[in-house]
Amino acid sequence: MSQVEVSRKPPALPLATLIGRELRNEKVEKPFVKYGQAALAKKGEDYFLIKPDCQRVPGNLATSFSVFAIMDGHNGISAAIFVKENLLDNVLSAIPQDVSKDEWLQALPRALVAGFVKTDIEFQQRGETSGTTVTFVLIDGWTVTVASVGDSRCILDAQGGVVSLLTVDHRLEENVEERERVTASGGEVGRLNVFGGNEVGPLRCWPGGLCLSRSIGDTDVGEYIVPIPHVKQVKLSNAGGRLIIASDGIWDALSSDVAAKSCRGLPAELAAKLVVKEALRSRGLKDDTTCLVVDIIPYDRPILPPTPRKKQNVLSSLLFGKKPNYFTNKTTNKLSAVGVVEELFEEGSAMLAERLGKDFPLNANSGLYRCAVCQVDQAPSDGLSVNSGPFFSPGSKPWEGPFLCANCRRKKDAMEGRRPNRPKVSA
Ligand SMILES: [Zn+2]
Asked: Which positions make up the signal peptide (predicted)?
């Protein structure tokens, strides 16, 4: 463009000024994130992850986000450690490069599904038998995205005193849809039979005896214990809110409301200690107990203002916004009440085809397709997991999902019960 043309327009702002302005706006708009952590070990199988300083665009502070996660391991610690070390990278590698912030956040739920499944496949390849719950929370500005398998919950105490659950418990005892899914995929659900034929304890899946219906790891249990997470994405109002993420050592002792109320008005660090103390006081140390408290605080206010402790107005519970079509259980959902929190996304289906979209990206240069789970490029003839199309093999059931490599295709079939079981690992 010539200088003459430029001079005809109103004086343009230098790019640096525009970027600077955008950064400042972003900064004003972005809340502070403050956090605290507390734990008491019984078996030493709880792990957590705190990464407050991630960036969508490396080196650009305006693109920062933070990640918090809890992994409650069972039958050993290796799955929990593996998740801590690999899950975040696997999720991020499934998000397209060079997209806007909004596109990035929209791509996140699908990337979380891909990252969870990829991490599970990679862990299984190590031939170890432990498993873990995962509750993975990503905070970008006012937007909170939570992905979870198992029963480590994340609750939100939004301003206005509305406490809501952002996760779903994948416990066979409490989740009838998960029981039906596991049974339909070839698992047996029942209680432990003790001497004399009496049934005791919670519902478990056999073989293996796991009480959870979803986890990462558990190579020695059936593939119907899937790593496909429930994902929920919400946007807080600019009044902010508090997240409490904790393992079942907390939630077996305290309700969401009691946990939230027990620490209101206190800074996050102290709040986490108090929640653990409260759980210990009510139930004793029966299990590993880990708690993360994360405050999302308006930029111009240094601490989260205390929430009035009055009871929730009956009227507010009548003002629910629209609900997503799919619920994995019938948890009361108070989030949309009185405009406190905007629900952006919720999906909990255990079917990969419903979670990964239908993209079928062909690299025109290489003639390869990219696997929607593990992101490897593979020739269509190798992978073959395709919408109806020229590569579709007539012998198998139509697949409505995206391209999957041969390895991830096998995993998908096994999770849906079309392959008897994963290979047994000898003890
Ligand atoms: Zn793959």
From this structure: none
CB atoms within 10 A of CB 399: 21
Q: How far is the CA of 362 from the centre of ligand 1 (A)?
A: 15
Ligand 1 centroid–CA 281 distance in Å is: 47
Yes or no: say if 147 and 116 are a contact pair by the CB < 8 Å rule: yes
Q: How far is the CA of 65 from the centre of ligand 1 (A)?
A: 27
**pLDDT (0 to 100) of residue 198:** 84
Cα–Cα dist 164/175, whole Å: 18
**Residues 365, 371, 374, 376: is their CA dihedral positive or negative?**
negative
Q: Which candidate, 167, 179, 165, 253, places its Cα nearest to that of 210? A: 179
119-159 residue pLDDT tens? 999 999 999 999 999 999 999 999 999 999 999 999 999 98
- Compute the average pLDDT of residues 25-32: 68
DSSP letter at 63 equals G
Please report, as a single letter, which amino acid is at residue 377: D
Give residue 405 CA to ligand 1 midpoint distance, Å: 4
Question: From residue 34, how far is each of 69, 141, 272, 292 by CA, in Å?
Answer: 15, 13, 12, 11
Instruction: Read off the DSSP letter of residue 143.
Output: E
CB 275 within 8 A of CB 7: no
CA of 52 from ligand 1 middle (Å) equals 29
pLDDT at residue number 338:
43
What number is the average pLDDT over the span 27-45?
Answer: 89
